[in-house]
Amino acid sequence: MQDQTAIELVSETARFIRNARAVSFEATKAGALNVPLSLVLEALLNHGSCRAAQVGEQIGFTPSVLSRHIAELEEHGLVERVADPDDARARIVTITEHGRKRLHESQQLRARRLIDRIGVWDEVQAAEAVQALGLLSDRLERGAADARSDDDAHPAGGS
Q1: Calpha distance 72→33 (Å, rounded)
Q2: Order of strands across the sheet with 79-84?
Q3: Which residues pair with 93 in a beta bridge?
Q4: Could you tell me which residues come within 8 angstroms of residue 34 by beta carbon, excluding any fewer than 6 positions away?
Q5: Is the CA virtual torsion 113, 99, 71, 75 positive or negative?
Q6: Which of 47, 77, 80, 88 is 20 to 30 A from 99 in CA distance terms?
């Protein structure tokens, strides 16, 4: 990729993020869960019950931030924490049926807000956008994983 194309990609990505945040904010005002809480629930829904640290790795939240989000979700009955059968000191986080329902409602609210903002867009255009965003996300995640592997293989100050 040429530098100018990369600059334009960064610019358009930033513009997209700004607009996506506006859609999410509107949906939250209409009753959807906020994005961080939705991300935690989506991770649990997609990957199943697990320790909080595993959720944090999946979505990139620090332990303290994740702990606050899980506590809030638990307070509202959207997740539950149970003892880990393999380690009594650890807890397993599980999405509840109420959590699944609230996540689905939130996704529906965000989808409706997105449709309202986009207006007339046929299914082919929407599918192409989903594919392009998925490809971009996959490449970014793969690049981040490669960078972490390089950092692990060549620690700063190492030989």
Answers
A1: 11
A2: 50-51, 87-95, 79-84
A3: 50, 81
A4: 24, 28
A5: positive
A6: 88
